[in-house]
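U., I forgot to send this yesterday:
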Amino acid sequence: MITRRQVLKLTLAAGAALGLPAGLLQAGSARGDLITRAIPSTGERVPVVGLGSSATFAQVARSEDASALREVMSAMLEHGGAIFDTAPSYGVSEEVAGDIARSLGITDKVFWATKVNVAGRNGGRADPEAARAQLESSFFHLDTDVIDLIQVHNMGDVPTQLGLLKELKEEGRVRYIGVTTTFPHQYPELIEVMRREPIDFIGTDYAIDNRDKEDTILALARDRGIGVLVYAPFGRTRLWERVRGHEVPDWAAEFDARSWGQFFLKFVLAHPAVTAATPATSRARHMIDNMGAAYGRLPDADALRRMVAHIERL
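Result:
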């Protein structure tokens, strides 16, 4: 009986020789140099826009035809991106992304960021052996001996699971470690971990209409030298609903934003504590548009205030 993994490999192998649809890879990234940011703990520079694998990416990954996701990952690399953020809890996203990268020969070109969490709900304890098994599955799915970044997902039993990540970092099997949450009730715990633990990254939500952590979490990350991956820079679907039927203002061209996606991403990227944003998508044209935010100018303080005021009026 053919397995799902074998079906994926056959699908990807058949499509690997195919390029993206004609005209899809337009010169949206031809405006200036690629913007990169330094990871505070090492100084290594990474592109400021990457790809997440929750939401629609995860939905498409559950199907047997992963060709659309192959085009998304190809588009990210073609336009200068590198960071791919995933998690075992995102269905088969991690496995499918690993198969795609292997089929395209780009495994070593991707900055792999994944997560670990086997803790029970409501602060339940994590079984160390189950956590180790989940971590080994990530190495297997991503087909790599060294994963760039592994974070404790949603603050799950941080003492146990971050402890395992520290061991992996000592062994040289993971380069960076951290913790994530997008839940406001977990922000106080996140702040405490940032203050007391030697982490390289946090992952959290931030958007033009979700700015409450600017003077707390983001300021602390900058003070402590912790990198920040921004999740949900579009407020998931919230911001798209807000701007439905509205055109991007002409003055957005002053900081090279030519779409609402670039408008929202450039707001996020303008914060000096942000290392990169990783919006999820399952469409190559959206990936290309997102990568456009990693080129050209970023808004200054006056432009940021104008952007906020504009969105609040809609």
